[in-house]
Hypoxanthine phosphoribosyltransferase (Chitinophaga silvisoli), 180 residues
Amino acid sequence: MSVIQVHDKQFTPYINADKLQARIQELAAAISNDLKGEKPLFIAILNGSFMFAADMFKYLTIEAEISFIKLASYKGMKSTGNVVQAIGLDEDLFGRTVVILEDIVDTGKTLSQFLPQLEHQQPKKLLVTSLLTKPEAMKFPIKIDYLGFSVPNKFLLGYGLDYDGLGRNLPEIYQLVENA
Ligand code: HPA
Ligand code: MG
């Protein structure tokens, strides 16, 4: 098999480009059907979601807007623990249909902190789309309205996902070879 090496680790092909694109087309079709006439605002969470967001957005057949944000996590006061701050979110969400685009939801921690901040702005709807999720890793349950693939709790690479900065450009998803 076509094993690749990134930094010190080896990875094998896990979800090929055709399968990814086919699934993303299905998600885009479902969203286009469900949100017809709502002019949804997609909020893509960088860095990981950039490739998924670009493909998803191309497959949509409805009018829609997209905005790209980064989430910065910093230590809050002792009582509040970590706090997530959105960088680059300029849109007013009041009364809007909002669709979050994530590459992967694993523990759910970041979204569990971020979604309430968005709800605070009183969007009409707040939906979550994620290409991937790892149910075994989920500690803060997040309702994913549109999900690409449910995967085991193993490290993945490619199609936006990185290993220490590298591998995001791979057009398919690879899985870590353990004990290699
Ligand atoms: N790979 C890369 N980045 C990630 C992963 C993963 O499996 N899970 C959460 N961030
Ligand atoms: Mg990363």
